Predict the 3D structure of the following.
Amino acid sequence: MELILAVVIAVVVAVAVTGGLVISGRKKKQLPPAEPPSTAPTITAPPAEPHVGDEAEAPREETRRTVEEVGLPETETETETAEATAEPEAPVVTEPEAPAAPAVEVPEPTAGRLVRLRARLSRSQNSLGKGLLTLLSREHLDEDTWEEIEETLLTADVGVAPTQELVERLRDRVKVLGTRTPEELRGLLREELVALLGPDLDRAVKTESPEDVPGVVMVVGVNGTGKTTTTGKLARVLVADGKSVVLGAADTFRAAAADQLQTWGDRVGARTVRGPEGGDPASIAYDAVKEGIAEKADVVLIDTAGRLHTKTGLMDELGKVKRVVEKHGPLDEVLLVLDATTGQNGLIQARVFAEVVAITGIVLTKLDGTAKGGIVIAVQRELGVPVKLIGLGEGPDDLAPFEPGAFVDALIGDPS
């Protein structure tokens, strides 16, 4: 028994010693160095997206929709079907404002208009009338004085033949008169000038047709004479005399001529018949007379192109306009517009126009801006037709019927 107990104790001691050696050996063995900390980022779940003005925070619980609650986008076919079946919206139409009608003007009466415009002839008066009176008032009227009188008349474009005639008559009458007071000389000069102007000539613009159609007046002349403006002013003269007027814008070769004429017509309530720029002038003239007949107008005024008298083809076209107009009825008046400042060149123009159309009357424009008032006498003598109208300014009512007595009074001044 004691033997068994001794063996057990010996075994326990041996185990204890062996265990101590093992532990001591482990303590002496060096441990491997510790691994360095990992540099890999730590991945965490992303926070919920912050809203405007919020800091990042933990995810919030949001309302979730089911598949049934989420609408699917329409296909292209469904969209086309919906558009086809939908009622179209009525377009919003904005009516443009109608332009205001131009105010119709009331032209000045023609009676006595030349007397009211006497001051416009001041330049002609100074050179012709007063010049003659000064020469005739000299104490001795010798040959040199009479030559000066002739020169004054020629400078004023009276013309050679009328000048010689006037000087001869003045010389004879001064010899018979004996005394030469200013009043007597003025009366003498007035009588002779009025006689040269042909006081008995019919100067009325013919606007009445012998047939049951409107009177037709055709206005002709070269470029730059104021032909279109004269046509517009003549419309005012006729309206002032109580007549209804239709205008024919047959000057299709000059840019804006039709617009210019229509503006004149709108001012007095006269209708303007026009066509495309560069169109056939004869066709427009024909339509204008046709419209005048349909509207039962009193007068049709036709403004023709500014024909250059040196171009035969254009002059032939003017003759065509005349022939076409006469298909409706007779042409009652053909007015030739001449620029008074052109002097003797105006007489050349007058001759050529007279060969193409039968000129029945003359309109002298720009007579207020020239010292050559004698052109009135010369052109009448050249054509054998009267001056019926004269232009004395740029105002709308500065076209006046020609009155020989009032014209001469403006040239030589008042008796006082």
